[in-house]
Specification:
Number of domains: 1
Low-confidence stretches: none
Shape: globular
Mean pLDDT: 89
CATH architecture: Orthogonal Bundle
Order of helices and strands: HHHHHEEHHHHHHHHHHHH
Number of helices: 17
């Protein structure tokens, strides 16, 4: 299977520059932020979100070099994403991310929360300095969506009445909004038509949904080594995702386990097995594939070239992670 790293080779130099800039932007203010920045941005993430922004920028400016504002947008996107992860890990009490200790387990909750707050504030400052009101509105909406998604997830823990539409809405807020709005923002900075900006938005929206659905499937099928956390972590915390929601009508006892919040010994192991023995995972896989295909359809409206092809390949790569 092609790796994300090899797919992103056309913007590899851009991403190296982005990482260096992020460390400088964040770390200059305080020694503890310097340490946190080195830790956050040196943690080996794939940097898919800023890569998509950079690819969309290049795809919408095929005859010109992308501007410093495009690069700053990619940096802002990664700041917002990283800030949300830091806060999510505190809320979820996650000890590991990508197989390494989370910021709060390394520096403590106080520093993690303040580092996340600082990243959100810093991203807002640099966003305002792009001097483009439409882009400011798009990325400001993302920050609201992230909070809304986290609230929705908190309020719907262990809720067996959650629908697939509810799940998709929550997944949009928590994952797809950032990809959708930052991809559209890249087109806005390039001066594309409103119609093309909408295509970019829809590409990011469906790609983000496919990405989240695949992540949720891997919570049942992946290994500790590949996930960087124990399998079933989301389920154990009461976050009911597509495989579970599809499995519920088929596996009535799953509802019993959810209602008692997996409080008895071996409950979580039983629940994982019930989902795996159902059609929940194949149905979720089809949902991911549908969204991946829609992403490809929308991005195909862009002018042909290597950046557009990489964006298409990324949409296909997302579902290939299940192979």
């Amino acid at each position: 299977m092609t790796s994300a790293t090899s797919l992103l080779s056309p913007v590899e130099a851009d991403l190296r520059l982005l990482t260096d800039n992020l460390k400088q932007l964040v770390s200059a203010r305080h020694p503890i932020l310097h340490a946190a920045a080195e830790y956050l941005f040196g943690a080996g993430g794939k940097q898919l979100r800023p890569a998509i922004v950079l690819l969309a920028s290049r795809a919408t400016m095929p005859a010109e070099e992308i501007t410093l504002r495009h690069r700053r947008l990619a940096e802002i996107t990664e700041m917002i994403h990283t800030a949300s992860l830091v806060h999510d890990d505190v809320v979820d009490e996650s000890a590991l991310r990508r197989g390494i200790p989370t910021v709060h387990s390394h520096f403590g909750n106080r520093v993690a929360i303040l580092a996340g707050d600082f990243l959100f504030a810093q991203s807002s400052w640099y966003l305002a300095n792009l001097d483009n009101l439409e882009v400011v509105k798009l990325l400001s909406e993302v920050i609201m969506d992230l909070a809304e998604g986290e609230i929705q997830q908190g309020l719907s823990r262990f809720s067996k009445d959650l629908s697939i539409d509810d799940y998709l809405n929550k997944s949009y807020y928590k994952t797809a909004s950032l990809i959708a709005n930052s991809t559209k923002a890249a087109g806005v900075l390039s001066g594309v038509s409103p119609e093309m900006a909408e295509y970019l938005y829809q590409y990011g929206r469906h790609l983000g949904l496919a990405f989240q659905i695949v992540d949720d499937i891997l919570d049942f099928t992946g290994s500790m080594e590949s996930l960087g956390k124990p399998a079933g972590s989301d389920l154990k915390s009461g976050n009911l995702t597509a495989p579970v929601l599809y499995a519920l009508p088929e596996q009535p006892y799953l509802e019993v386990l959810i209602e008692r919040e997996f409080s008895q010994e071996n409950d979580i192991e039983q629940a994982l097995q019930l989902v795996r023995d159902s059609q929940g995972i194949p149905q979720a896989r089809e949902l991911a594939r549908e969204n991946s295909q829609k992403a490809v359809e929308y991005i195909s409206h862009l002018e042909a070239g290597q950046p557009r092809q990489v964006l298409i390949d990324l949409a296909n790569y997302v579902v290939s992670r299940l192979s």
